[in-house]
Each structure stands twice: as C-alpha cells, then as structure tokens.
Amino acid sequence: MTRAPGPPWGRELRGRLDRLVIESEVLKDNPLGDPHRRPLYVYVPIGVDESKAYPSIYVIQGMTGQVDMWFNRTAFEPNMIERLDALFASSGCPPAVVVMVDAWTSYGGSQFINSAATGRYMDYLCDEVVPFIDERYPTAPSRDHRGLSGKSSGGYGAMVVPMLHPDVFSGLVSHAGDALFEACYLTEFPLTIRTLRDRFDGSYETFWEHFRSAESLDPSLHAPLNTYAMAACYSPDEDRPGEVVLPFDIDTGKVVDEVWAQWLAWDPVRMAPEHLDALSSMRHIYLDAGRSDEFYLDLGAQAFAKELSAHGIEHTLELFDGTHGGLQYRYPGAIAALAAALAV
Asked: 245, 264, 283: which is the final residue of a domain?
C-alpha cells in the first residue's frame, strides 16, 4: 500500500476516517428531489478501544457546503481531516468520535431545520444519523455525551438544533453562526433586489435558469442565492412544495412584515428566551466570530451571548481579528474543549 507523501500533500492519518453512505427515509421524496442517499464521514482517533464508549461530536457545514469539501486544502495549511487527526493524536485532547454530516440542498443549504421547501433535515440529523452512528461506533448513546459544532450556517444549526433537541445534544460550538437576522440577512435584501432587477429582469425564475445553466459559480450572485435559500428554510410556501414566500416586495424591496416575522422566529437571538431550560442544560456552549465578519455575525454572537448572560447561562464568547473566511484553524481547539466537556 502506498503511503501518503506527507506535507504539503496528504498527511498519513494516525486515526481512521470512514467514508460511509446513509440512506435516509425522511429525505425520500423531498420537495427539491435532492438525493436521499447521503455521504457521511466518521473520524475515529488512534487508540480508541471498541469495547468502551466515547463522546461523539457532530460537525456540520456552512451554506453551499458538502461533506467532501473537508478535503479541500488552503495553501500552506493542513485540511480539516488532517487538523482533526493532529488534534486527537496529541496527548491533550480526550478521544471522541467525530461525525461529519452532509445536509446540502440544491438551493445551497438546509440550515439543519425541517422545511416544506427543502426537506426534513433536522429529523435527518437527530432521528437518523445519530442512531446510525450509535449502532455502529463506540459512542456513549446519551445526550450528555453528544455535541454539535459548525460554522456559518453550520454554526446556526449548532445553536438551534440543541435548543430544539436537548434530548439529543448537550454541547454546542458555533463559529460565526447566523444570528441577529436584522444584521446578517436584512442588509442583503437591497443587494438581492438590485441584482435581480439589473441582471435577471427582476425575476427569480430567470435567476435560477441562469444559475443552473452556468458553468461556474459567480461570487457576485451570493446575495440572491443566499436570500432565496434562507427563505426556503424560514418562509417556505406551504401550498407549493419547494417554493418560497419572500420577505420583501421584489419590485421595491419593502419588507413584508408578516413574512419577516416568520424569519425572526427562527433567529437564535429571539429563540433563546423561549428555550432557556434547554440552554441551561448544555454542558458546553462556545461562540466565536471575527471582528470584521462581512455578515456582522460577530454582532450575532454577541447578541446570543448577551441573552445567555441575562439568564445566567454559562458560555464562552471569543471575538478575534478576522473575517468570515479562513476560520478552519479555530475548529480544533473548540472541538478539543467540547470533547473534554462531554467526556464519559
């Protein structure tokens, strides 16, 4: 067997990475016709004893993320899999089984919640992936030893899913998670409307025709893509599966108050006061964001942390010099602290 060539190419793993496929029942016949057979990566550290039970940490991705992107490499840096391997090979990190979950949709993402426009992705994670892992790996089958970690939309899921399912997860790590929606989403609505007006005849139908026929992703289309994907999660059209109700008038940009209220009901900052028992039960809560985050998710982290502080809920908030990108170096330390908090 050929060994990995070593840095700056692939590093030889000391632990084990299993690349699996899970067949989901809840994602069958989803409104977008997206695949219900999903890849699932499981990292098992070196030295794990199959006769014992260990914490499990579920790692979820941001908007447009798909699980094989964890192999992507930035120049002069290890990729995520290699970072995990180095973390758990060190003597300072207690062992944990790390599960990398794919919740991609053809709109770019699911926010890890159930939606009539995208599918039942929260049920997929909590009711299918977690039991699938507990049946096959040496994990402690208890919420006290499970945590959820993610960045951006994954950080959003890491805040929201434990609030709604404290029976499944008791620890969370949110790197620049979507929160304080008036800062991270409302500011994109004017750009979305201008882009649609000036390039797509003011029509999302025209936008999607262009988007799906394009040979590459145009970064300038982030705003209309993200806005529609979020509408699919927060304000789906219940009468038209796969379609959305926009929170603004597409011709003028005027906010539609009743639809915007549906979005705000999913804002972690607004959700927190309604889920204090769940948040109080967490064994570990960690939040961070770059001070120059382009989507103002540093403000979202601060606002969520302020809600926690107001009710005496223990947590850690770290703001650092940085933007929304290039945060992968922050993942291992947060995962190590989560693994320690969840240790059996």
From this structure: 264
- What is the DSSP-derived secondary structure letter of residue 129? I
User: Who's near 196: CB < 8 A, 6+ residues apart?
Assistant: 202, 203, 204, 207, 224, 250
pLDDT (tens place) for every residue of the chain, 344 residues total = 578 888 888 899 999 999 999 999 999 999 999 999 999 999 999 999 999 999 999 999 999 999 999 999 999 999 999 999 999 998 789 999 999 999 999 999 999 999 999 999 999 999 999 999 999 999 999 999 999 999 999 999 999 999 999 999 999 999 999 999 999 999 999 999 999 999 999 999 999 999 999 999 899 999 999 999 999 999 999 999 999 999 999 999 999 999 999 999 999 999 999 999 999 999 999 999 999 999 999 999 999 999 999 999 999 999 999 999 999 999 999 999 999 999 97
Say yes or no: 64 and 163 in one domain: yes
Which tokens sit at 172? Answer: 């969370």
Rg (CA), the chain: 20
232: left (phi over 0), alpha (psi -120 to 50) or beta: alpha
Within 10 angstroms of residue 221's Cβ, the number of other Cβ atoms is 17
332 and 233 fall within a common domain: no
Cβ neighbors of 142 (< 8 A, separation 6 or more) are none
pTM of the predicted structure, to 2 decimals = 0.97
Q: What is the domain extent for residue 71?
A: 16-179+269-341
**Does some domain include residue 5?**
no
Nearest CA-CA partner of 301 in 284, 320, 275: 320
Q: How many Å separate Cα 179 from the centre of its chain? A: 12
